[in-house]
Design goal:
two-stranded antiparallel sheet; 64 residues
Length: 64
């Protein structure tokens, strides 16, 4: 997900402002735009989309 031009991984919650060298891929799940860092892509490719959190879940976790 993207919050104020900062990408947050919808799997591990890594953010682009704390990991300057991280690469994020924009994807779709259930009709919503999500962002996944390259470190988490194998979990999706070799596992399933069940590890991907919705943007609402990510927003709730980030605000804690």
């Amino acid at each position: 997900m993207e919050i104020n031009n900062i990408q947050v991984c919808n799997v591990c919650l890594r953010s682009s402002d704390e990991s300057a060298g991280a690469v994020f891929i924009k994807a779709m799940k259930n009709g919503e735009d999500i962002h996944v860092c390259t470190g988490c892509i194998p979990h999706i490719i070799h596992g399933s989309g069940d590890v991907v959190k919705s943007n609402a879940q990510v927003a709730a976790e980030v605000q804690k």
